[in-house]
Amino acid sequence: MLGYILRRVGLAIPVMLVVAAVVFSLLYFTPGDPALIIAGDQATAADIAKIRVALGLNQPPYIRFWSWLARIAQGDLGLSIFTGQSVRHMISQRLEPTLSLLGLSVLISVGLGVPFGIAAARRKGGFADRFLTVFMISSLSVPIFVTGYILAFVFASWLRWLPVQGFSPVEAGMGAYLSKLLLPASTLSFLYAALIAGVTRTSMLAVLSQDYIRTAAAKGAGELRILFGHALKNAAIPIVTIIGSGVATLIGGAVVIENVFAIPGLGRLMVDSIMHRDYPVIQGVVLLSSAAYVVVNLIVDVSYAALDPRIRY
Known about the structure:
Elements: H1 2-29, H2 34-39, H3 45-55, H4 61-73, H5 87-122, H6 127-141, H7 144-158, H8 174-208, H9 211-218, H10 223-234, H11 236-260, H12 266-275, H13 279-307
Helix pairs in contact: 1-13, 5-6, 5-8, 5-11, 5-13, 6-8, 7-8, 7-11, 8-11, 11-12, 11-13, 12-13
């Protein structure tokens, strides 16, 4: 088991190096001169030259990359061009809202998707199965920002049950914290929960048709024991896979949802930085998001070995 984990960690390192190279290249693959774009049309030659020095554009690309990588390894993400603040400090200020949004979205999605998928597989062709089909088609057809506006209109403007925007930290009280997160997290979970439920249904149906399930039923095992004690454990790998791969969907959706519900998280920071062409901040947020996705997939790979001891590749 330990050797398997070390191998997966070793494979993650070159992946992160490739991610870092791509993130670094964002600044240089942008059409036009980045220094001229940042400086604006009214900038003087001295202003443009100053920005080029600040960005390291006056050095060869490979020197800039290794210098940037060395700073990243030390936790230095550079300074914002627009505000002059440390990028790491700016990200740390926006981290709590985004992590709270993503965490609650995962809890809602897994808490609804897995039981819903099991219920649909338990009675194939029944009401739960047909409802799941409609739910999946709806979630895939409706853009996430439209879902957000619909939920905001119904639960905030019409029923007035929940606040429509903003974020309240945990220190302000758990009630305010959850009330402001519930609408955006539910919106973000709409597609994710449908994907989890669909994969859970398909995986459970494949397992429930196996001979050992019929043998367990013939020996008098109860339905709950068959579903959760035998079938779900053997159907877990595809479910864990979609939960892990769906993190990319959540991270991308968080950018939209944070702007719809005015949440001051990393998504809002990313959009503001793009508007201001603040490349160091863009690089920092993209690098952090990519690293989070790599770590989540590493955790998923390790969980495979825990779920199925035969996996040691």
